[in-house]
Amino acid sequence: MPVVFVYAMRPPEPERVDVCLSALVHAVSGAIGCPPDTVWVHWIEVAAMHIGERPQAYEGHGPAIVIRSRPGRSTTAVAACLQSAAEAAAAALDLPLEDLWVCWENVAPGAVFTGGTVHL
Description:
With about 120 residues, the chain is α/β, with parallel strands linked by helices. It has two helices and eight strands; from the N terminus they run βαββββαβββ.
């Protein structure tokens, strides 16, 4: 079960947040072959952002997307997931693809509690 965290400024059209979260559910599930209802996506609103010393407006900011999951997926599947997530978020948020930062983090066995149990 992947968990996705989107750190971004609120878009000028607030409905883009839900569009982005839904798009990420389908992008991630499609890329790694898991059911959409097993992908959890969170929006964490960023109040301000700088790139270097320059403050950024919505149009120039770079959303950061972190995908966490248990290990076991191939590098090819992870790469496809990163690409798919970046494309989905860029389209949903109306931002250039090159403005996004997306990473995959494996969570070690024994370090995840979900579904009522610790997964070893």
